[in-house]
Amino acid sequence: MALLGHMERLLCPYCKKEIDEYMSTCPNCNSKLKTICKTCSKVIKTNWKECPNCGQAIFNDSLNPPKYSDVPVETKTQIYSDNVPVETKTQIYEDSTIMTNQKITEYNNEGIGHLTNEIFRSSDKLHSKKFLASIFALLLLSSIAVIVLGLRHNVNKYYEEGVSYYNQKNYDAAISSFEKVIMITPTNTKAKEYIAYSWYGKGVDFNKQGKYSEAIICYDKAIETDPNYASAWNDKGVALKNQGKYSEAIICYDKAIEINPKYKQAWNNKGIVFFNLGNYSEAIICYDKAIAIDPNYTEAIRNRDNALLRL
């Protein structure tokens, strides 16, 4: 078989390294070797001064830089006919159509237009989302405002009802109303005070009926609401004394006196417990404390005289 004739040795005009004729870019220095003539759209070499096809002078700024791999690659194909090879050149393009300057411009314009439209669409979507979010936030705030106003109205309503029930000595209804106030506004101190007063009033009623266990439960509820409720501690002591639980009663009286050292009734009640226990000296000390607070406290004076007679 006969081989192809000797092929001319080609060098890169920029780095002087050996290249093949079909190359469009130097593999050594990455310099562009071929491009498209702006006038006739023919393939030309980048180091030429003018286009050999149309005679147009070639300047660096007038070169139409290829885009999207529009530079054809020349390959040599050997076609054998009757065992005699005939060398032909085949141009292979990566894209099936060569993009001319006009087509590239049209493509760019269309691409930019499409991109611009997409940007505006995205912007519209973004603004739509922001608008919807703003509407939702506004509706939420409006709903909260309506709820707050409604709850505030209910708080005033429940509070006024509770005061009315308390004044009527309907302590259960009063407690229910004030507890609703506390559920809406947990920091409402006036409602808490009235709850304590209502439990205390209910305990007093049970104590008068001789229901001391029920009375103690109510006093404990009042103390739970207000631990510094001296009257609740004192009256709990009275209920315990009536049950014969003197030691526990003294603890309650001491607590009432700790809260209010000038609580004359607590001193007198403590003296009564000591008197019942037969400890007359301690009883007289307690009565003296009550009389010192109120010299005209006749009950304490009478109890003190009875204790002196027992000495």
TrEMBL record:
Transmembrane segments: 131-151
PROSITE patterns with a match to the protein in the record: TPR (PS50005), TPR_REGION (PS50293)
Cited PANTHER family: CELLULOSE SYNTHASE OPERON PROTEIN C, TPR REPEAT-CONTAINING PROTEIN MJ0798
Positions of TPR repeats: 155-188, 196-229, 230-263, 264-297
Signal sequence interval, chain numbering: none
Descriptive protein name: Photosystem I assembly protein Ycf3
Keyword vocabulary terms for this entry: Membrane, Repeat, TPR repeat, Transmembrane, Transmembrane helix
Native source organism of the sequence: Candidatus Methanofastidiosum methylothiophilum
Residues of the DZANK-type domain: 12-55
